[in-house]
Structure formats: structure tokens, C-alpha cells
Write a structure and sequence with these properties.
Distance between the termini: 59 Å
Order of helices and strands: EEEHEEEEEHHEEHEHEEEEHHHHHHHEHH
Helix content: 25-40%
Number of strands: 16
Number of domains: 2
Pfam families: DENN (PF02141), uDENN (PF03456)
GO cellular component, one term: cytoplasmic vesicle
Protein name: UDENN domain-containing protein
Oligomer: single chain
Radius of gyration: 33 Å
Length: 603
């Protein structure tokens, strides 16, 4: 029975194309009119047959998904001589009951028409968005980079993006950290390795290591260090720890989520308890005035300013400019000892990141990259070690364990036992919501973090630091998803390119997923087949890829109604006649000497 159960599939949850509807405007209008963003296409509403079970309807899309694909709230065509560059940005949506839903958006430009003198052309953006709950951020970005080459072509494309996306959504098995990695084929035919990375965001902190890296959600600690600077990182880190409103702003949205994910991963084992919207759409800017803790990201041009061009935000909001590494408002400070060690670790990461930007490829490139990864791990370990020291300082002889106390008493005891110069910061820290949730829901998390961390971080080798901090990275098995089945990579319907239609529209969005709503055939992977290919046992794959099975609930089932016998069955009138059974006669008792008559009975 184990060999007929399907392997869980779905690297991505969904894929949509967002843009504007067809319009009749010519290229001589300057500036071009802005148009509302809308969802143009989506993967088939029903998943294909997978594992022998008919696919059910896909879950509904998040509300106002098009605003997160185009944070301006609408689509803005531009009039330029050359094609604008493609861009990729991330956004994160949270739900209290499920894992975070992350979206990776590729914005590509297509030529509409030229002006009267032919010097400039009207370019219209279109966004391809993939949604995923698995920490596979780097792989999805590489996949979309290949799709950018496909979308850049003006002629009819020979690659069916829909078939490739259906592979990611309904055919490829989900990767499992340390167990299974997947090799998928990109739109250009290049193989991409998909590995799960633990993400340091709400509901997903932990794993094999003490400090999970932010790569799964598209974050980058090295980029955060370069864009924030030493002072900016200290200010942003203190604001997140003390649950002060934090606003990250930049001219573009490409780096907002990467920096926000890095900041959230640096506060492990704590989790963000307030609003967390790394890319805040322009129509939702009223959230800046919300009287609560939040981590928001927005474009610099959207933020309110006074007559002196200074930020006009509410009191207590910490605002950091990623473009100029400038802190626009007042900000809290870390404890002296923690600030000194964090600054030293930050400078180390910053120096190695500048060396990596040189793109010098030689025999020492791999060692430099490993040193940079180890420096990021040391920075995470430094912050986590000081958080543990503030919330659970060493106990004196005879004092009870912190996990045995109620959250309020535990916070008072932590403030009383910490260093005198750190008490003002610790007093504010224990009153935050994420610390109280840590004390109530995960009372032993600090003890586990202390056991996983280390004091002599500088004396360990780079590989040991990464292993202790991030956990093992090697996967036991790797499986390659084959390319689409028969039919090649051609589109399903050759008439899907509607741009050639002479209907009077200056621009019409091209269908990327094809006009056919029937999904292409997909392979069904079963545990037995996958176990044979990977050289593993069925039990190991089941434990790695499936959650534990809940015990069955006993329910009284109604008795089935009586079914009349078919005609001709035994006992019916038209049954065939049968011979009567012969009556059974018991044998006679034996007699002595074989003669009849009365005789002596034998024993």
C-alpha cells in the first residue's frame, strides 16, 4: 500500500500575470497615462491529476495581490529611447495559521509603439509573480531570471512558461531540508537546484541550527550590512528588538525585502509579533500612522515630508534610508557591550562583502565566499548570544529556573540579574509582545539557543561556525524533474499571440500561459519509484516528506441496506432444480464374532 501513495508536490503555490488591460492610446501622449493594475492570467484554477487523485481547486489568491506586484497601485507606461531594465523584487504576506506566503515578482517591459519622429517608444510593464510557502528563494529568483530572457523577445515565444510553472506547482516534489533537493529545468533549459532554506520569520524560526539564514525568503545579511551601514544596522536592530515602528525606504523596491528579512533573522530566537510588510503598496500608506509596532518598507518618494524636505512621520517612528545609509529620525541604542561586539562583527562582514563585489575569480574565490558566510554566521551568533544574556542571564546558586516562572516574574528576574549598564534596555525588552510570547509559548527556547551557541566563535573554523549556527546544508538525495512531456516546449495554442490582430488597440497583453485551460500531462511520482531512484527506503521518505498521520476517529457507520438476490439465484422461484440431500444414517454398533443378535458390548 505504501507504493501507491503520492509524493507531496508543489514548490510554488500559484503563478499569476499582472498588468494592465488593452488600451488605444498612442505613443505621442506625454506623459503616458497610468492604468490600474489587474490580474490578467493565472495557472489553471484546478490542479491536474496528481498521484492518482483528481486535483482540487486552487486556494483563492490573496487580497489585492496586484498591488504587491506593482507597489505604485497602477501600471505606469514610460516613453523612452531604450528598453527599461527588468527587475525582481520580493514581498511577504503572513497568516496566523499557516506558513508565510512569499512572492517573487519579475517585472518585464514590452514595446508598444513609437512616437511620430520615431526617436522614442512606449514601453509597458508586465509582472510575472510566483507564490511559495517553501524556503526556496534563491532558486525561484534564478528561475525568473531565465524567464526574463523569454519575456524580452518581441516575437512569438517558443517556450511555454505555463508548462514549466505547472511542473513547479503540481509535479515537482517538495524539497525537504537535509533530505531531498530537486533539480528543475528553467525556461531556457538550464537546470536549477532547489533546496529548502529555513527562514527567520514568524512561525518558522529554528531548525537544526541556532540562527537560520534568511536566504529562503530572499533575504541577504551582506546586502543589509552594505545598505544600512554600521550605525543603520544598530538602529534598525534596536528598533526591531524594542518593537518600535521601523520604516525602510529606498528609491526602488528591489532591496526592501532582502534587508527586512535579514533584520528579522538577526533577532532569533525572537519572532516579529507586529505588522511585517517589507513592501508596502502606495494605496496602503495609512498603515504608517497605525499605533502599533511594525516593520514596513516603502519607496522614498511616497513618504510624507515637511516644507524643509524632512520626514514628517509620527513620533517614535525609526526611519532609515537605504540609499544614503542615513537615519532620518531619532532611534534607540543597544547596550554598550552588545553594541561594541555587533559593530565589530558588522565591520567584518562589510569588509568581506566589499571584496566579494570585486568579482575576482581565482583559486581563492571559494575560500573568500566561505569566509563571508562564516562572518554572517558570527554576526547572527553575536546578536543571539546577547539576546539570551539579556532575557536569561546566568542564575545564582539556589535560584529557580527561568522556565519554571510565570512570564511576568521571569522578566523581572531577567532585569535584576543582567548587567547594570544593560538594565534600561532589558527593562524595555521584557515588556515587548514578542518576548512575552516567547516566555509563554516557548519557555525552553532560550535554553536550547544557549546550548547551540558558543562563546569562542572566533577560535572556530569557518565551516564549524556555519554548521553550529545554520545547521547542516547537505541534502541526502537529489531528484531531477524531467522536461515537459511530448509536444516539446511549443505553446499549446499557436493563435495565442493576439498582438497581430488589427482591432484598433495600440497595445494588448500577450498571453503567457496559452489559451487552453487544460493543463499539460504531468508525471506521477510514487514513494516506491522515488525510493528506488534515490536508493532510500520508503519509510525514510515518508517520514521526511509527510507530517505524522493522525489516529483515525471511530465513527459508527450505518448498516448497508439489504440487496435483493439476482434472478436465478438459489432460493428464488426461477432457480434451477436440485437433488434432495440424502438423509444421514448412523452406523450400527459392532457385534461380537460378526454375528447378529444380542451380544456383549465392546468397550
Amino acid at each position: 500500500m505504501e507504493r501507491v501513495e503520492p509524493v507531496p508536490a508543489g514548490i510554488i503555490e500559484d503563478a499569476v500575470v499582472v498588468g494592465c488591460a488593452a488600451f488605444r492610446e498612442d505613443a505621442n501622449t506625454n506623459p503616458p497615462a497610468r492604468r490600474p493594475a489587474e490580474i490578467l492570467e493565472r495557472l489553471p484554477d484546478r490542479a491536474p491529476v496528481n498521484g492518482g487523485i483528481a486535483g482540487g481547486p486552487r486556494p483563492p489568491l490573496p487580497n489585492r495581490l496586484e498591488w504587491f506586484c506593482f507597489p505604485d497601485g497602477d501600471v505606469a507606461p514610460v516613453l523612452r529611447r531604450r528598453r527599461p531594465p527588468d527587475s525582481v523584487h520580493w514581498f511577504t504576506l503572513h497568516d496566523e495559521r499557516t506558513r508565510p506566503l512569499r512572492g517573487c515578482v519579475l517585472t518585464s517591459w514590452r514595446r508598444c509603439a513609437s512616437n511620430a519622429d520615431g526617436s522614442k517608444a512606449l514601453w509597458v510593464p508586465t509582472a510575472l509573480c510566483v507564490l511559495s510557502r517553501v524556503g526556496v528563494g534563491p532558486a525561484l529568483e534564478l528561475w525568473l531570471r531565465q524567464a526574463a530572457v523569454v519575456l524580452r523577445e518581441d516575437a512569438t515565444c517558443d517556450v511555454s512558461l505555463r508548462r514549466r510553472l505547472v511542473q513547479l506547482a503540481d509535479e515537482a516534489p517538495k524539497p525537504a531540508r537535509g533530505i531531498l533537493s530537486i533539480d528543475v529545468t528553467g525556461p531556457l533549459g538550464r537546470v536549477i537546484s532547489v533546496r529548502e532554506h529555513r527562514c527567520g520569520t514568524r512561525g518558522n524560526v529554528g531548525g537544526e541550527g541556532a540562527c537560520p539564514p534568511p536566504r529562503g525568503g530572499g533575504g541577504s545579511i551582506r546586502l543589509a550590512v552594505l545598505l544600512l551601514g554600521v550605525d543603520g544596522l544598530n538602529a534598525a536592530l534596536a528598533a526591531v528588538l524594542l518593537e518600535r515602528p521601523l520604516v525602510l525606504h529606498s528609491c526602488e523596491c528591489d532591496s526592501l525585502t532582502r534587508v527586512a528579512e535579514a533584520l528579522v533573522s538577526l533577532i532569533a530566537p525572537l519572532e516579529v509579533a507586529g505588522a511585517y510588510v517589507p513592501v508596502l503598496p502606495k494605496p496602503l500608506l495609512d498603515l504608517l500612522d497605525a499605533p502599533q509596532a511594525y516593520v514596513l518598507g516603502a519607496k522614498s518618494a511616497w513618504l510624507p515630508r515637511d516644507e524643509n524636505r524632512k520626514m514628517a512621520l509620527a513620533k517614535g517612528v525609526v526611519c532609515v534610508d537605504l540609499d544614503s545609509q542615513r537615519i532620518d529620525t531619532a532611534y534607540p541604542a543597544l547596550p554598550p557591550a552588545m553594541r561594541a561586539e555587533v559593530e565589530a562583527a558588522t565591520r567584518r562582514v562589510r569588509a568581506l562583502a566589499h571584496e566579494a563585489l570585486g568579482e575576482i575569480v581565482d583559486e581563492d574565490a571559494a575560500s573568500r565566499d566561505m569566509a563571508l558566510v562564516a562572518a554572517e554566521a558570527r554576526l547572527q551568533a553575536t546578536v543571539a548570544r546577547h539576546i539570551v544574556a539579556l532575557l536569561d542571564p546566568p542564575r545564582r546558586p539556589g535560584e529557580p529556573k527561568g522556565s519554571a516562572l510565570d512570564p511576568r516574574t521571569r522578566g523581572v528576574a531577567a532585569v535584576a540579574r543582567c548587567a547594570p549598564e544593560a538594565r534600561p534596555f532589558a527593562r524595555q525588552l521584557v515588556d515587548t509582545q514578542h518576548v512575552q510570547q516567547l516566555f509563554e509559548l516557548r519557555p525552553n527556547a532560550l535554553v536550547k539557543a544557549r546550548d547551540a551557541l558558543f562563546e569562542d566563535a572566533d577560535e572556530l573554523e569557518c565551516c564549524d561556525v556555519v554548521l553550529r549556527c545554520h545547521g547542516p546544508r547537505a541534502d541526502a538525495y537529489t531528484y531531477r524533474v524531467p522536461p515537459p512531456l511530448t509536444g516539446g516546449d511549443a505553446t499549446d495554442d499557436e493563435s495565442t499571440d493576439e498582438e497581430t490582430a488589427d482591432d484598433g488597440f495600440a497595445w494588448r497583453p500577450r498571453r503567457l500561459f496559452g489559451s487552453s485551460m487544460t493543463p499539460p500531462p504531468t508525471r506521477v511520482y510514487r514513494y516506491g519509484v522515488l525510493a528506488d531512484l534515490l536508493g532510500a527506503t520508503v519509510g525514510d521518505l515518508r517520514c521526511a516528506l509527510e507530517p505524522p498521520i493522525e489516529p483515525p476517529v471511530l465513527v459508527d457507520t450505518p448498516r448497508a441496506p439489504a440487496v435483493p438476490p439476482p434472478p436465478g439465484a438459489a432460493g428464488t422461484r426461477d432457480a434451477a432444480p436440485t437433488k434432495p440431500l440424502r438423509e444421514f444414517t448412523p452406523p450400527k454398533a459392532p457385534r461380537e464374532n460378526g454375528k447378529g443378535g444380542k451380544g456383549r458390548k465392546t468397550r
